[in-house]
Design a protein that fits this description.
By secondary structure, the protein is of the alpha+beta class. Helix content is 54%, strand content 15%. The strands form 2 sheets. A 5-stranded mixed sheet has the order 3-4-2-1-5, with helices on both faces. A two-stranded antiparallel sheet has the order 6-7. Helix 6 packs antiparallel against helix 7 and helix 7 crosses helix 10.
Length: 256
Amino acid sequence: MTEISNQIKIKLSEIERKENIQILYACESGSRAWGFASPDSDYDVRFVYSRPVEFYLKLENQKDTLECELNEVYDISGWDVKKFLLQLNKSNPSIFEWAASPIVYKTTKEWNEIVQVMNNHFSKLKSLHHYNSITKNNLKRFFAEKTEVRYKPYLYNLRQCLACQWIMKKNIQPPIEFDVLQAACLPEELKESAGILVERKKSIGEKETGPRIREIDLYIDSVVSEVEEYLEKNAEKKPLEYDELNRLFLKVTGYR
């Protein structure tokens, strides 16, 4: 990992020079960060960046994402800090996962300022809806009437269900690592089956398939139903609050 990590850091420095940006934070997302990468898994690198202050003062709309490399080895892309903070205000669960990644390629004092306020914008219900919706869509797309399935979406579904269990029990953003979620939330009688699933995922290619595990299927279905019921009984009417994030945006972009 050290050699690849150094290569990624070099690529990030090249992106900074080419695009005239400052990368505030860069991390690994996806299966490598979650702890169940396949032998042919790529490196999903996500970063948050800022531009010179003049960029934000232009009248015309500006591009707020960068897609820098996409091939069999690397998937490298980034969000402008303004887009990131707007999505933080909406409690986008994906950016909370970036912040919690155990594999960090770059961090800065500006990023530390952002991290300090992130929990103020976490929404339990939005996160539950996010994870449950992805699971339901995966079930329709990859699992309907199939006896053999790809293990990538299989483990994604299990991880998302565990994240929902964590949120409902603890009322906080779940950790990103599968092992931590499993230890805290998965019923003891399912841990052996989950371990088998993880080892299969780690030993085969991303697109290879294998048999389903009935007890894991039943658990996923039960959590999806539990979350659906929970969301029906609970509502959240929380207005977007911009003051704190406006001040933070001005600070990290150097306007103040």
